[in-house]
């Protein structure tokens, strides 16, 4: 189903720049770069494969001067977010969480070729591994962000359970252009376009802060005019879309 969502109204329809050393079988050496334009963002249109990335990348980010980005630290948050339902990775249970909002399960279906790939890897001397475990050198079957065979998107896992909360506000057909900060550089609101109008909303007190920014890169792009009293940062608001149109989701403490 996700193949039909890509390059549709649910996708921002981005493409990579032409590549000099790859994508030779694509027109203009460029391929689609799917980015969800729907509630839940890309988690609603992706292939649902759950892979956290390589632990050495996280350790490298901390070594560059970013405290708290080492793998040991971020693993706690991966586990906190996860509700692992699978049975395949029993030997790496300490790398998985239980009770979190994001459901992760075994891949339920696979072509006969999958078993052939795994067997070929073993014949070459590689182990069958958990890609979210201690090492990523080997062959594996991907974990999936699914629950009972259905998609476990950000919208399904985080937004839907919070719909009745008084501190959650969703504006459909809206597009955030700026993050507003106070004199102490704390997020106090957003500027957005809605039905042809440019609006500024959600002024929080000093103990409140907006959270979650989707599509940070757009706010950092050069074609967005920033005022002297505004700056851009990550995670002050969540942008997605509602009923296949852009929307803004904002939460407060």
Description:
The chain is of the alpha+beta class and 253 residues long. The chain has two domains: 49-151, Arc Repressor Mutant (Orthogonal Bundle), CATH 1.10.1220.110; 163-251, no CATH class. Helices cover 18% and strands 22% of the residues. The chain is built from six helices and 14 strands. Strands 9-14-13 form a three-stranded antiparallel sheet, with no helix packed on it. The radius of gyration is 21 Å and the shape is globular. The two termini are 36 Å apart. The model is unreliable at 204-217 and 220-247 (pLDDT under 50).
Whole-angstrom Rg: 21 Å
The number of distinct helices, counting runs of at least 4 residues, comes to 6
Strand order of the largest sheet: 9-14-13
Mean pLDDT value? 80
CATH architectural category of the largest domain: Orthogonal Bundle
Oligomeric description of these chains: single chain
Major sheet: 3 strands, antiparallel
Cα shape:
globular
Structural domain count:
2
> At the first level of CATH, what is the class of the largest domain?
Mainly Alpha
- Low-pLDDT runs of 5+ residues are 204-217, 220-247
Structural class: alpha+beta
Helix/strand order, N-terminal first: HEEEHHEEHEEEHEEEEHEE
């Amino acid at each position: 189903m996700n193949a039909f969502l890509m390059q549709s109204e649910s996708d921002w329809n981005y493409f990579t720049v032409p590549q000099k050393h790859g994508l030779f079988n694509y027109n203009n050496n460029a391929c689609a770069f799917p980015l969800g334009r729907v509630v839940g963002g890309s988690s609603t249109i992706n292939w649902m494969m759950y892979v956290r990335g390589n632990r050495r990348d996280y350790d490298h980010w901390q070594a560059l001067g970013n405290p708290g980005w080492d793998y040991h630290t971020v693993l706690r948050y991966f586990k906190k977010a996860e509700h692992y339902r699978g049975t395949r990775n029993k030997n790496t249970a300490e790398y998985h969480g239980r009770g979190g909002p994001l459901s992760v399960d075994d891949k339920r279906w696979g072509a006969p070729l999958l078993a052939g790939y795994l067997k070929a890897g073993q014949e070459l001397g590689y182990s069958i591994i958990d890609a979210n475990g201690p090492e990523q050198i080997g062959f594996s079957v991907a974990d999936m962000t699914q629950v009972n065979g259905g998609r476990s998107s950000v919208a399904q896992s985080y937004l839907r359970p919070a719909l009745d909360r008084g501190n959650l506000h969703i504006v459909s057909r809206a597009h955030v252009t700026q993050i507003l900060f106070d004199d102490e550089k704390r997020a106090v609101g957003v500027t957005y376009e809605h039905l042809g109008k440019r609006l500024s909303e959600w002024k929080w007190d000093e103990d409140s802060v907006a959270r979650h920014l989707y599509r940070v890169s757009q706010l950092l792009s050069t074609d967005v005019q920033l005022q002297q009293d505004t700056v851009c940062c990550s995670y002050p608001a969540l942008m997605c879309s509602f009923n296949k149109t852009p929307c803004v989701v904002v939460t407060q403490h």
